[in-house]
Amino acid sequence: MSNHQRKTSSPPATAAARQQRWVPYLLLTCLMTLFARVPHEEGWHIADYLDTFGLDGCFVRRGALPTDFVANKLVPTKDFLLIEVPHNAPPELIPKLLRQLKPAKVVAIDVIFANKRAEIPPAHLHLFGAEPARWQREDNLLAAAIKESGNVIIGCWPNTKRVPVPGKLNKTTPLIEWQHPPDVIWNAARWHAHLLVEPSPIDGKTRSVHLFKDVKFSDTKTALQMPSLSLAAAAASENLTQNQLGHLKIQRNQLTLGNHTVSVPQDGLMTIDYLGGREEFDNSAIHWNYSFAIDDIGPEDVAGKIVFLGRTDFTAKDDFTTPFDNMPGVHVHMHAVSTLLGSERAPSEIAFWQTWLIAFACCIVLVLSLQRLSLMGSLAVGLLLCVLIFLSCYQLFIDYHRYFPTSVPVLAVILTYNGIALFEYGRTRAVLAKFVGRDFVRTLMHPLRSLSLGGQSEVATAFFCDLRGFSTASEHLPSSTTEPLVTAYTSTVTEVAMRFGGRVIDYFGDGIFILFQESSKKSDANHAVRAVQAAVQAQTALAKVLTNWTKLAGVELTFAVGINSGEMIIGVIGSEEHMKLGAVGDTVNVAARVQGLTNQCDYGILVTKETQDLIGDQIALTSCGQFAVKGRQQEVWLFGTGQVKQAMIKTDEVEAKAVDSMSLINQAPSVELRELNKPNV
Fold first, then answer.
1. Closest CA to 272 of 201, 210, 351, 354
2. Which residues of the chain have pLDDT under 70?
3. Structure pTM?
4. Which tens digit of pLDDT belongs to each residue from 33-73?
5. β 172-179/191-194 pair status
6. Where would I find the H helices in 241-328?
7. For residue 171, what is the DSSP state?
8. What letter does residue 71 receive in the DSSP assignment?
9. Which of 120, 160, 234, 267 has the fewest CB atoms within 10 Å, counting from its CB?
10. How far is Cα 522 from Cα 527, in angstroms, rounded to an integer?
11. Cβ atoms of 271 and 348 closer than 8 Å
């Protein structure tokens, strides 16, 4: 292999690890991308905020169209005429205006003509004197003007009141009742519509209009399909009758108005393509004050136009917030008519599968970054993707009048990042636990604890073991053959030790350092007893394996253990750059030296006097005498174990023997050892 190949090729283990992580990464990506649709479909607030923010950004990025362009160049709007009718206008004003507006194609009145007589109980009418008769005359005058013009749209409106909840005291519920003007006015109009403009419950902005509403009046038995004022105006301009209006249907996202076909959502909730803010219809060419209209209006000024009568002052109750600014309800209806009759399609949402593809593509880019970059680097990529999602939505809106719910890809990116981050966090904990143990991982990863060098003094038991004869056997066997032996040996000892509450501190060649601390469970034996129990059970479990390997290597292999109890410092040792869990102190040093003395005794397991004092009479130990320990002036009294009393040690594939020197093994947890196969040579 060339030097260039040696530098650029990835290690097989690293490539395999990346390939293994692709499977959960892709599964998480698909799952999170599908789940990201749920908040949008269910109307969760977080999704609604993201969607409305994205849609508002589409209008803001496109910007308001110039007023002159709206008034003179845009075909649907140059045919508009808005006549402002103030609240304090005299009663005879509107009938006079309607007669002058007779040449107009359609006159849409965005004014509520309340039925004052119906609102007063009959028994109280006499309290108003001549007022009810005057109201009747005004209604008749307006009805005559409407009928004479023959081009007027009159609207109905919802009235919400609270009614008591049956069976519950002091509990009320909202009840919506639809109302229309007095019958004489309502029946005189050529077209009927609803005047409802519904702001979003999320932030109070008006972005869409219901083209149809099921309306039920108090004097009707069934609900009627009532078009919005904007739809009625657009349909009337296309010469549709009221009967045709009532039978309009949206089919495959298409609404046909005479010779004009409009692309609208199937549910009839049409997004309004706002041309700009309040000032868009303030141009003098299309916006007149009622006094100017009465004095100077001529047939040629209104012929063929769509005329709106409404209030535009900020004191009006029907003032609504839009993506640009506040505007009166009549302006909202005019923007909706412009959307319906415009040459471009109404703004609409792209298909679900297209949104899903956008979200999935963004998540794949994020996954690729997570494969190559750190979590912080991938976080920056995720933030960049979110920005690109919004910019893509804006450009799609500007170029094609289409948009997508930005919450789906944004939440998909967020969920995928967090899902993979949690997956990697769990994987890191699992890998780290294999090196330092699960208990210490909890300490290392505790969010409220800082990791620093040092530890605390504690009375515990140190357990050192190795394989006697392993060095000699290694001379006769290749490393590929000795590796399975070491793996089987360390796996068995580790599994047994962990079952008895031991914590592996370190591996060094064929040596193992295990620490037994006081258990938090009162039912468990003390750490010294559990250490000796683990040593005996590990020795028994390894007996058959070591016998087979002794025959293979031609050198006797025996299991040697040294155990000592006492005070030691347990904690994090090393340096600030490289730390590990450890235990230091004279107790640990003596245990390591005692393990080396097993070749001078008849027992493979040696225990110091300090450990024997903690065990007491729970386990029978045999005195081996005093021995000099390297590095210590004072000799150490040692005890050995040979048999365990009243115990049957259970293993899967290893033949267990009754050892009389362990009397309480039945109090310790049973060990289910996995099959130890003889390695192939």
1. 210
2. 1-21, 67-78, 88, 169, 282-285, 313-317, 437, 439, 447-451, 520-524, 642-681
3. 0.69
4. 888 888 888 888 888 889 989 988 888 888 877 766 655 54
5. unpaired
6. 242-246, 290-296, 299-302
7. -
8. I
9. 160
10. 12
11. yes
